[in-house]
Amino acid sequence: MTPWVPDCLLSWDVDIGQQALFDGAFQKLLAFTGGDLRLVYVIFLTVAHSLPTILINGTHYLIRLVLGDAALEPYRWQAGRQPPPALVRKCIMYVGAAHILSPLLPYSMFPRAYGYHPHLFSAPVPGILTLLLQYVVAFLFTDGIFYWTHRLLHTPMLYRWIHKQHHQFYVTIGLAAEYAHPIELLFGNVLPVFFASVVFRYHIAAFSSWVFIAMAGTTFHHSGFFFPLAPSDEFHDFHHSHVVCNFGSSPMWDWLCGTDKQWQDKRRGGSVVKVVQQSNTDVAGPAVLPPLSLGTAAVVAVPRGRAARSPSPAKSSAARRKRSTSRK
Ligand SMILES: [Zn+2]
Ligand SMILES: [Zn+2]
């Protein structure tokens, strides 16, 4: 039941097969679980969470296996750079464990979610226009909540305690999307994606398909590649390589709040001021960042047209030495 969807939209709505697709899956799951709606809920959301991770990362792995790293080098946002193998292994173990444990969340949520929205399964499956409207609403809430929780995570204390785990990836891979402290996973990732679907009582078909889209999006955002015909995103890659700008899942809030200065400089290709790189090789975590402000970030000037390139470790060390000297 989506009472906020305008009647005029509902009257024009169309079904292109999604209703039969959902009903078929729902009936099979109902039979498989012996009519246990809680388990059906858990399976829908678990598949929506894990399937994009497996498909996209698995495809990238196969492409690398077949073509080799050298052939893919022209498609990397940060050419010539890869995350440390030890960090990648740690990430695979961590994200694997997170996916194994992830069904606990919808399992514990279900009684309250179903009590709040008893028509979660029984309402008509939304038509395409309704689905698109719900995706737009879900995107706006996801984008806004993600931006502000992410900026909070960049305050000195929360960064040091929570967010620096995610920023160990200076050069990202798809799995790094979920390589984050459990508190960040819950409040910085799950909350933004779930918010609109739960609060506005989305049908489980709309809810789970939005989770699928959001998971696919964040996996592509962290992939580190820009393959032809595949979604890609240099915006968040730039956040990982520069740390103090581009906090949103899209550029909208950063543009509104002026937290995309380095990104805009880079896009203009003009004289660029670049934040001192805080390398992921520093496993203890990068330096503390200024609270909700770019104004006090340590910066160094870099030559025209080199904004997208990260400084060499030697230059990073020099920059850090220069910064620490200037503080004295
Ligand atoms: Zn961050
Ligand atoms: Zn990230």
UniProtKB/TrEMBL annotation:
GO terms for molecular function: iron ion binding; oxidoreductase activity. It is found in: Membrane. Residues 318-328 have a biased composition (Basic residues). Pfam families: FA_hydroxylase (PF04116). The keyword Metal-binding does not apply. Residues 136-259 form the Fatty acid hydroxylase domain. Keywords: Membrane, Transmembrane, Transmembrane helix. Residues 304-317 have a biased composition (Low complexity). InterPro entries: Fatty_acid_hydroxylase (IPR006694), Sterol_Desaturase_Related (IPR050307). One of its GO terms (cellular component) is membrane. It comes from the Eukaryota. GO terms for biological process: lipid biosynthetic process. Residues 304-328 are annotated as: Disordered. Its main location: membrane. The chain crosses the membrane at residues 39-67, 87-105, 125-148, 193-213. The keyword tRNA processing does not apply. This is Fatty acid hydroxylase domain-containing protein.
